Amino acid sequence: MLQHAFLNDQATPAAPVPQQALLTDDSATVLRFALEALKTGTAVALVTLVAIRGGAARALGAQMAVREDGQYCGLVSGGCVEAAVACEAMAVITSGCDRQVMYGEGSPYFDIVLPCGGGITLVIHKLLEARPLLEVLNLLAQRQTAGLGYSPQHQRLQRVASPVSTGWHNGVFVTGYRPCTRALVFGRSPEALVTASVAQAAGYEVQLYDGSDPQAAIPVDAHTAVLLLWHDLNRELPILQAALAANPFYIGALGSQRTHAKRVQKLSELGWSSTDIARIKAPVGIFPKARDASSLALSVLADVAFARLNVAGDEQTDVG
To answer: What is the pTM of this model?
Structure first.
């Protein structure tokens, strides 16, 4: 009898051990990871951070994707609960029933403490179809905002046609997504080269223009930062006017306060209003008198990142 029970235990397969497949907090990468799993017939769950109590390492709407084999990507904390979350997600995949889980403050898991001292609430949804993810990723590829709405009552995920800010709306948790930040860097200088390199390392979509092709198209949209790192006001002027005529979230120009005064005068003579001109951050960057290329690049991109986080009325999850 005991031997029979032992044999039955031996025949029971062990649960998969969670393994981090990709170390990333990029939402689009998480959605692509989940989409690829669905395409191969692998069951997968999407985990979303839906409430924060006190402090938290990630923003509301942060996500993970967990496959049935324990492979996962994404972060919903500083890395301290992700393996436990993956186990919960695999249980959801097995049962087919979505669940809500709390960690940190207010959680029944007293042995899992968040270093920040706060608490988080997650919803874990077993993905049933690929279409909502595909629709969001297609919109992001077209440089458009997108959103996913999750209804706990119906255990359903669907694309939101007009995404609002990330959070609860009439019983549905909406996660907003923005296209990857684009950095257009203009200049033929060490400053321009290093700034482009650092921006690329930060995950931005980067295009570097050295002025060799004056007819080059300049793809500016609301998710674009235009960085003018010329040491030549005349050369930058056409690009600066094109940027002012468009709607980038950031326009920065290299030069001292004296140089900027000349820039303002030229733009005023060309008919630009003081309101238009005030959109230009000059001298560019967050700290003054950055003389070497590396310091300037860090100063400029820190200012760009701050501006991106503080775009008026835009609290959506940034994918880049």
So the answer is: 0.87
